[in-house]
Amino acid sequence: MLDINKIKNDFPILKREIHGKPLVYLDNAATTLKPVSVVERIRQYYLMETSNIHRGVYYLSEQGTLAFEAVRKKIKDFIGAGDTSEIIFTKSATESINLVAHSFGRTYIKEGDEILITEMEHHSNIVPWQMLCQEIGCLIKVIPIDDEGSIRFDQYEEMLNPKVKLVSLLHVSNALGSINPVKKIIDSAHRLNIPVLIDGTQAVSNTHVNVRELDCDFYVFSGHKIFGPTGIGVLYGKASWLEAMPPFLGGGDMILSVTFEKTIYNHIPYKFEAGTPPIAEVIGLGSAIDYILSIGLPLITSHAEELALYGTQALQTVPGIRLIGTAANKRPIFSFVFEEIHPHDIGTLLDRQGIAVRTGHHCTQPVMHRYQVPATTRASFSIYNSKEDMDKLIQVLMSVKDRFK
Length: 405
Fold this sequence. Notes:
Elements: H1 4-9, E1 17-18, E2 21-22, E3 24-25, H2 36-49, H3 59-79, E4 87-90, H4 93-108, E5 114-118, H5 127-136, E6 139-143, H6 153-159, E7 164-170, H7 182-190, E8 196-199, H8 211-214, E9 218-222, E10 233-237, H9 239-244, E11 255-258, E12 263-265, H10 279-295, H11 297-315, E13 321-324, E14 333-338, H12 343-352, E15 355-356, E16 358-360, H13 365-370, E17 376-380, H14 387-404
Parallel strand pairs: 3-15, 5-6, 5-7, 7-8, 8-9
Antiparallel strand pairs: 1-2, 4-10, 9-10, 11-12, 13-14, 14-17, 16-17
């Protein structure tokens, strides 16, 4: 069992009161809170270690380079990659997907080819592929989901054909909480030599991920959703793909040689990391991974599973609530609509009681269309949340219902 009170002490913001009420933070699918250790590590870099890396021969630059590259190795181990050269630093998971769309897509996908995505995708895994389709004339095909929020795997397998050049999907849905059977999906695609990209943004903080066991071709995630800073993302790619793909951005540090006649690009991963990198953010991300490992991923996973079960059962006891996303295999992300009450009103009234939730379409408008709702209220839980937080949410929701009578 996680020691929730001990964990809460690592997050000073949880001692705040909002409108005179203790803060209950339930917007973790949007961004997680940051522990003191992460904030202090970033502060230490800026106060005592500031330098630019890779190109300096002075002490601070050399030490900064060592700290930066140590995080690359830490991420390699964290997600089970084969080599540090397969870890690319970006500014976000969104940029990571755009990098693949630009570099892989424009190289290997042609007019008339197909890209498979799911009906539950975040906009960041829809729009880049639409932009590619508009440019080169390829097609997006959408894998349907059922009423519970699970992929129709039988229909997915029927959609696989030689025209499909990429499958790209979420590991865990940010709107529904559904955990997709990514290993099965990858295996089916690979039988036709189709590469697969997995968006692990909602998975890596509470799920054991080993990219070599999954055998995915690309895997992306963001630092700010695993207790790290904003402005830092990660792209894992198999070395064979990364070596064959052209750079996404051009500039300093991604070159071996530049003349006015020709540029020779750097080796991976640096070929994809043009310009001064997000040094402090990478170092902060490394501290966030240390924090997760200090608690223990198996304990975090067990806690997430327990909250998912408890929350699903608890919310379904509230009269008038309709849960959007009831897959048996899910994480503690709960989207719901409440009779005739607009989600924005629900969110405002919850805020008055110190409960922070997200309302709207959650960058998943196709999901809203699928369930014929304009928006939902979403409560998403993390390591510092407890069953008591769910009980408080239920209590306030009951009072909201009474108020709107």
